Write a sequence for this structure.
């Protein structure tokens, strides 16, 4: 299985800059590859990051502004060129289904990839599988928009010394049931990932971020420009940090920066004033691992 990590493909809002590509984020989660908001140039960024098109198993679009979706044609066509053998499930706001179809078939190509659209019609569970549970929540932007959340089921961590004391080993472990299981293991909280893009503060933002081990969230503006953030349906770095602090987030990843700012350190400083956990100011081609699980206690 691949390590659980976020591969940052692009971090700019609205337009690319000399140092920042349009949005694009790949979450590696065991055997899954979840591609979020592929903006223009994502195919090339995947090449630079060493991410084959075949790694993508699900595609997520928060809304249909160009910096969040103009990379779809290139990525899909590359999947066909590489003859990706598995289905690719696509999640996007149902109100933008026409846009998705246009992007999916933006030009002529030998179409052999199995893209399966799943328009999101409201908040709730989108899918469940070995990866856990995928959820969506409405956001507050100028277009219909959703954020996404991945929740791994809780499990248990085995305690080797207790297993040894009972003479339990090998395949016997998988057949354990309470009360013996409770005596040789401790609860293990499943990991959680949240992805929040263009939005004002709203209930959906906090619901998505609740208890996240890794929160990827837009911070288009700094606090000095909060009025602009509200006007255009965005967040500031301080607001994003407030969400992380109130929701018990472990690692906060700030991204989707306005081209008006040239010093990334300002975003880190602003967020760190509010949030005491790990703060990452994302840069193109960064790799951000999910935090290690909290130590289990007997």
């Amino acid at each position: 299985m691949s390590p659980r990590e976020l591969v940052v493909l692009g971090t700019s809002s609205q337009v690319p800059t000399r140092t920042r590509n349009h949005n694009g984020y790949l979450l590696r989660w065991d055997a899954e590859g979840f591609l979020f908001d592929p903006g223009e140039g994502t195919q090339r960024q995947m090449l630079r990051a060493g991410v084959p098109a075949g790694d993508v198993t699900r595609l997520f679009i928060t809304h249909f502004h160009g910096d969040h979706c103009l990379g779809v044609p290139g990525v899909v066509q590359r999947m066909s060129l590489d003859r990706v053998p598995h289905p690719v499930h696509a999640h996007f706001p149902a109100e933008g289904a026409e846009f998705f179809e246009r992007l999916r078939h933006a030009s002529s190509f030998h179409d052999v990839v199995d893209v399966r659209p799943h328009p999101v019609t409201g908040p709730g569970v989108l899918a469940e599988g070995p990866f856990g549970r995928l959820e969506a929540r409405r956001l507050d932007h100028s277009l219909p928009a959703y954020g996404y959340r991945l929740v791994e089921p809780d499990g248990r961590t085995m305690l080797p010394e207790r297993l040894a004391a009972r003479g339990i080993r090998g395949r016997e472990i998988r057949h354990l049931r309470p009360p013996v299981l409770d005596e040789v293991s401790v609860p293990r909280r499943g990991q959680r990932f949240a992805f929040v893009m263009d939005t004002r503060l709203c209930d959906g933002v906090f619901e998505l971020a609740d208890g996240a081990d890794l929160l990827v969230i837009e911070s288009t503006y700094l606090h000095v420009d909060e009025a602009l953030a509200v006007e255009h349906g965005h967040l500031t770095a301080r607001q994003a940090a407030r969400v992380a602090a109130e929701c018990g987030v472990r690692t906060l990843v700030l991204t989707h920066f306005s081209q008006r700012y040239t010093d990334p350190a300002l975003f880190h400083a602003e967020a760190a004033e509010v949030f005491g956990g790990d703060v990452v100011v994302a840069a193109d081609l960064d790799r951000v691992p999910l935090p290690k699980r909290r130590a289990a206690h007997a």
About this structure: The chain has nine helices and 16 strands. The radius of gyration is 20 Å. The mean pLDDT is 95. The CA atoms of residues 110 and 222 lie 45 Å apart.
